[in-house]
Amino acid sequence: MKIALGQINPTVGDFAGNSAKIIEYSRTAKSAGAELILFPELAVCGYPPRDLVERGTFVSHNLQSANQIAVQTSGIAVICGLVTRADPATGKSVMNSAALLQNGQIAFVQSKMLLPTYDVFDEMRNFAPARSQQLFRLSGKQLALTICEDAWNDKHFWNDRRYDFDPIEALVQAGGDLVLNISASPFWAGKRDLRREMLATIARNYKLPVAMVNQVGGNDSLVFDGSSLVLNAEGDVIAQAKSFEEDLIYFDSDQLRGDVHTQIQREEAGIYAALVLGTRDYVRKCGFTQVIVGISGGIDSALTATIAADALGAQNVIGVAMPGPYSSAGSVEDAEALATNLGIRFERLCINGIVAAAGKTLGQAFAGLPEDQTEENIQSRARGMLLMALSNKFKALVLSTGNKSELGVGYCTLYGDMVGGLAVISDVPKTMVSRLSRYVNSRRPVIPVSTLEKPPSAELRANQKDSDTLPPYEVLDTILEDYVEELRTEDEIAASHGYDLDLVKRVIRMIEGSEYKRQQAAPGLKISAKAFGYGRRLPIAAKSDL
Question: What does pTM read for this prediction?
């Protein structure tokens, strides 16, 4: 049997657009001689729909769309993800399901059993789990159809399993001879290797081929890399789709041969592709065509502007330099050089007059008090005000430029440099910002060398350097990763790296004390195993010495 994997980029709630993609890919696969085509998890309605599934009209439109797809894809069997209604006795209204569309109708439905409730996932909130699953027969094959998490509980791969039951084990024991998995598995650095090896373990253990089709594209903070795979019974890849773009591939279920398309391998290249894809989809799916980036001459804004230009085209990016009382001439020159190299529109707006006016207005209230961080923040907020004014006037989305290191310790200003609709690099540590920027320049030198080499500075006071307030970024990023992603204690962090314990404690206090800022930040694109945002749900008002 010739089987196709339709790796598509759905938009949540765009039933017409998603259906059109499914129908188009199905007809193309039929013309190529495929008998069956698979589409990702919840492809009909888009993933993740979150609380939209509580709306009856959403569920109805999704079911109507599935029936229309069935009618318009005659001659080929189609498997696609959708929302189905649940038994009211479960306390939930819907289930996360996969439908086999055949001969103009929904011929078979399989629902997801394992509903993840960790990190960015909260599916138990919205869906009822299936109580059991069944095989279905097609072209002489007993097909074991599973949905994403149903494949993530293999006892031969995981030392600590999240669930007592393994749907794949049960389906194989019932006589399944080909494992199919439709997924919406988000990207983070290292995830593709983990996913591939996990699926290979399943294939080798049960001595059966495994096919997984994954969603591609960005939806809110999540980026889906695609990277769909088919593995033989030895766990070898016999078919694979591209990473970070839509694709259609085929494989033969008997001969176990298929299309092998090139995937991005290098870590920096993969992360950069994820950021470009996530930015493009966030901006466009939110209804914008243009973006604005405040470019300071520093490396963070340079990388953000470069990502924006690659995502949306240089003609849709406005770079804004906003020199202030402590901005160096070199920083302004670097900002303009970056804009020229990228081919983006460049605006220069000096904030000195706004800062002076604010100082005059606040003068009486501040009489007798020394200057401190307050005056620094006024400069940042003056820039934020200008960016948002340009956003209103040009109907363009502001991209904030803060990195994960800064956001982690609160080295950022609310309503200042944190303004914007998307925080593009908020999950990218400063050391990775440097690596990504050098990767960008290895393809085409657009970021000025002086931007790459200058000591990081907010330039909000004379001779200011980030190192005045923060430890070296190599140290800071290691502490952040250990504490935020690995949940290690301050003693464990200090001992494992030979760091001063008081330094580690100070950084952790900064992390904990900045939660109120992070929860007011623009959504960011997740590229690590644990990003700030709704995958890390902490209280704001809590003791930090836990």
Answer: 0.95
